[in-house]
Amino acid sequence: MSTYIIFNQFEEEKIILTKQLIAEWISRGHIVIYYSGLKYKQEIKKMGAEFREYPVVCQPYFQDNKLSPFNQGKEQFHVHEQIAKRLEEEVVIEQPTCIVYDSDCLFAKMIAKQANIPAVCLIAGYVLTDQQMEDFKETSNNKLEQLKQYVSDFMQKIEVVSTKGESAHRVEGKSFNELNLICTFKEFQPYAALLDKTFDYVGYPIDYQTSSIETIHWDSFKPPYTYVSMTHKTLLSEAMIQQLCVVDGTVLIDTECIYNEHKLVDLPHSIKLINHKLSESDWDHLDIVITDAGLNLTHLALKHGVLQLVFPKTELQGLMASRIESCLLGIWCDACDGETIKQSFDLLFNYERYKANAKLFATSYAKSGSGRKMMLKIEKFLKGNNV
């Protein structure tokens, strides 16, 4: 019997996505402890999980989306540290097999790192509200200077060390191994993107095998798998390609959506160029698909539980759009443990539409019986790390 702890935000679609997973674990006699908002207490308890409300002192942080890195600036990291300190002791007492967390819950990853507990990112999806985009533009001088200092200060805390031939991080004098690798530079990649600066990836060894442009050898890749396919009317911007170069896992790019191919000579082995469309069976291997508004792969994404990011062609123009594009890419590839569980969100720049679709897609995904698939993927991750 194992114990799993889930940390979640208060949003309904995120609760929906976990129902099937909880049911699978409970049916196998495992213990599930679920941290979330009080309004979901009865629903979570009916699933057979133990509900826990966040400590009262922490609850103000969950209001008005204060945990989002876009809203907190320099203070955001400190907020998560405070929550982690409040929760770490009661989490460690449970001796969980694994922590499953929402990408808003950076504090859960901090706890996992400190206590050497395997951690899997279950929910990974952000979108900028119209007001947030306006804030970035209107307060550029003041805010960008703050972000520049924030990123600079944080990056100075990171150094790469070598342990038994494998890369690892050391942050503020504390080292942690690849199993619990908190991809610190990606955690703050949105800020770097706003400054038109992409930091080199540190601490994650690349050992992908090279595959033929005609053949995909899935077994030789590390998850997650990302597939990029655009219509000929929307070509990949250089900013997006630079972001894809530092995504964990393997990125498959349809060569039809690439321009100026001579710029791609120095691509890392993690990016594979293919000149054919993926078959439907290939979709079972995917975690993410990136498309433009002119290529409708939503039906396949929903069917196979793949996270879909949609960039309307009109939004790909101009510097601000390029920065927003980089921010989104920096967020969804947040799960450095390589086990981002598949989900289906249509991330358009209209926030209200996103919220409505998030609930719709989460419901469709949960009804598809994907709980067992989630569970098996997490078990594969744990087994791969000898847990």
Structure commentary:
With 387 residues, the protein is of the alpha/beta class. It has three domains: 3-123 and 375-384, Rossmann fold, CATH 3.40.50; 131-194, no CATH class; 218-368, Rossmann fold (3-Layer(aba) Sandwich), CATH 3.40.50. It contains 14 helices and 13 strands. Strands 3-2-1-4-5 form a five-stranded parallel β-sheet, sandwiched between helices. A five-stranded parallel β-sheet has the order 11-10-9-12-13, with helices on one face. The longest helix has 20 residues, at 75-94. The protein starts with a strand and ends with a helix. The relative contact order is 0.13. The model is unreliable at 69-75, 124-130, 132-137, 154-223 and 312-354 (pLDDT under 50).
